């Protein structure tokens, strides 16, 4: 369960190259009882932390862009079969592209081919690096599960989509299936319960691999060293332990925060994507895992702070490099209320940067001047009071749509 508040930014073009494309260290619910039925022993994770990914040439990228645009035109015209053909052509040119997979899945869904829709959409969910792309794919998956009559799976997909970005359409769809589940998203900072409890992380890993949809599924209960801070260095009640673990398959890996209380182990699933075999490179660095005192009268809270980003290399129409990148500094706060089950807020972004850098090996007189680099930065000021209030301040003009709901004061209540 990845809980993300995505800031929708007003794009501002700025001259000059951004100094940094991401963090310095490269890496990226349904309750299951601790006595879950035995499952096959989890596979060990691949030794390589940076799997090889397909390299797209300039010529292939041009074919990809044309096919993607053609597919969108055909889909808008209601030619779902033709759109599927175009999106598959885009994937032939640019394998593992999450955007093309997601749009292929939607075209197949509209064409009433649920099997093709589910295959493409699930792969798109796995490979998507950008939260908005993954959220869209999860919404599409929810629609597919609804049509199959799988209500619980549809609810889970819609909830995961909302975890990644607030969206009224998704919220309304979820409310039509489960009003109580939708109510959890009425306030963008409402904490969500973690998955658990588990008697051990080995049992959690067995549950994960047993339920995996993709081949080559694995889960590792040991701390993931490549992500920076990997464990709580000074455990304090109610937090007996906390560490970063990972699970994945042949397409990539997700990082999870595992916390131990007197009840057992609970897991904040997929707080970041550690590895991705798609077309975007992921960068993740955990800056802090610490027990903190933020709300008076409650047990100590746990704070996880992360810097995460991605970058994608492409080409424009004149074969000049376009490097799309983003970097987000965020934290989440976990606490334990009357239920005894840990819950965590969505990720609270304090600094968000996006940009597009343009590069060329040598000037092309037919192409005109190299476009100016684009850089957008949004900073939010977040403060806590001892009565459990969280106040977020920022420039409303830099936020759009649902992201504006971040601003103001929110009451922090752990269920």
Short description:
This protein has 415 residues and is of the alpha+beta class.
Q: Which segments are poorly predicted (pLDDT under 50) over 5 or more consecutive residues?
A: 1-54
The gyration radius over C-alpha positions equals 21 Å
Which fold name fills CATH's third level, the topology? Serine Threonine Protein Phosphatase 5, Tetratricopeptide repeat
C-alpha end-to-end distance? 17 Å
DSSP strand tally: 15
Q: How many distinct folded domains? A: 1
Strand content: 25-35%
Average predicted confidence as pLDDT: 82
What is the general shape?
A: globular
CATH homologous superfamily label: Tetratricopeptide repeat domain
What is the annotated CATH architecture? Answer: Alpha Horseshoe
Structural class category: alpha+beta
Number of helices: 9
CATH class annotation: Mainly Alpha
Order of helices and strands: HHHHHHHHEEHEEEEEEEEEEEEE
> What share of residues is helical?
25-40%
Sketch the major β-sheet. 7 strands, antiparallel
